[in-house]
What we know:
Blueprint: E1 5-6, H1 24-34, E2 36-40, H2 42-50, E3 55-60, H3 69-74, E4 79-81, H4 84-91, E5 99-104, H5 111-115, E6 120-124, H6 130-142, E7 147-150, H7 160-165, E8 175-177, H8 184-190, E9 194-198, E10 205-206, H9 207-213, E11 218-222, H10 231-236, E12 239-242, H11 254-264
Parallel strand pairs: 1-4, 3-4, 6-7, 6-11, 7-8, 9-11, 9-12, 10-12
Antiparallel strand pairs: 2-5, 3-5
Helix pairs in contact: 6-11
Amino acid sequence: MAEPIVLDDPDDPRLHDYTGLTDVELRRRREPAEGLFIAEGEKVVRRAVGAGYAMRSMLLSAKWLGPLRDVIDAATAPVYLVDPALAERVTGYHVHRGALASMARKPLPEAGELLTGARRVAVFEDIVDHANIGAAFRNAAALGIDAVLLTPRCADPLYRRAVKVSMGAVLQVPWTRAAAWPGDLADLRAAGFTVAALCLSDRAVPLDELAARDERQLALVFGTEGAGLAPATLEAADAHVTIPMDAGVDSLNVAAASAVAFYATRSSVTTPRTTS
């Protein structure tokens, strides 16, 4: 059992994990290098613990001592109790949810490990917006995606904002980084996947046409709304697919497009997901 430790000094070194959470560039460099990520809010903290991530510490305001008592009692990591004003000074923003936990990252799995037994895979190319990544993972969790591959330039799914927007779904859906993009597309194809690129091109077929095929194994590849997918990615894909739209709208952002595509192409055979 971890008895809460009351802290009242914003410069206390024990609060190091929580300092400057609004500095995106700092967190992008520091969190992966130090092997941590921040879970914010009761639901996300519980999902992180439930997914098997080891806790480094918790930072709570007094109102969470009751609701999170079972998590506190089970914790072997220190639990720091601070008032909301101090939490804001440390983190750089108003921690309105009042509960933060610093969690240890796990090593990323090999892509081949994630593809084994998978039927629906999402691939995101160079999506740098953390909110879009978080929303896309929430869509993936809700709509039957078995695994997610991210290209090297994609935003960190375990950055605080991405985890928060996803409501902890980034902790549920298995994911990893593509090691040699776009060469990894050949690995998808070798594993039996049909690779479908969501894009605007002359050879693109409507999403409904792809959905009607009910591919046994399907990998859906998404790029940025502005630049779209790289030419090498488009060339390597088995199919180009578009979401037909009205009112002169030519595209949706990746969060919206992924939700539409995941729902339309969900497999008729479900694959049980294991949380890692």
